[in-house]
Amino acid sequence: MIDLWTLGGLSWRELFQPTVKESWEDEVFGQAARLAFYHFVVLFAALFLAATILARLSGAGSDLLKTLESSLGNVLPARALEMVTAFLAEAGKGAARRTVWFAMLGALWAALNGTCALMSGVNSAYEVEARRIEG
């Protein structure tokens, strides 16, 4: 069995140089930035959609919305939580309902682009040419 601390007999230089070269060629940091951007954008659209849908539901919807707010309170700082709860309260009002379609399209756009970025990154890392079956 190979001991991980001996790096399989490689020196640090022998391990580091090809890793840096491959990372540069595969644009690892650019791919990571694309993935982070699209998935970060889709979080806001999904939060807006969830708040809008939960506000329309009677009974259980308001309970779920309160649970969502309390869960976010465990993660977010106080000022950010105030902004998000104000946003969620506004999402249930009539003015926010007119923008649901815009939020749905934005979430779909970001999710699709995030998925395409993931596929592109994996194809690049494994050096696979993207092939699609044409019907």
Explain what the structure shows.
The chain is elongated, with a radius of gyration of 22 Å. It starts with 11 loop residues before the first helix and ends in a 10-residue tail after the last helix. Helix 2 packs antiparallel against helix 3, helix 2 crosses helix 4 and helix 2 runs antiparallel to helix 6 (100-125). The protein has helices at residues 12-25, 28-56, 60-75, 78-91, 94-97, 100-125. The chain has 135 residues and is an all-alpha fold. The longest helix has 29 residues, at 28-56. The chain is built from six helices and no strands. The chain has one domain (28-125).
Secondary-structure element series:
HHHHHH
Helix percent reads: over 70%
Number of strands: 0
Query: How many distinct helices?
Result: 6
Contiguous runs where pLDDT drops below 50 for at least 5 residues: none
Report the sheet-strand fraction.
under 5%
Distance between the termini: 48 Å
- Counting structural domains, the number is 1
- Sketch the major β-sheet: none
Helix/strand structural class: mainly alpha
Mean pLDDT: 81
**Rg measurement, Å:** 22 Å
Shape: elongated
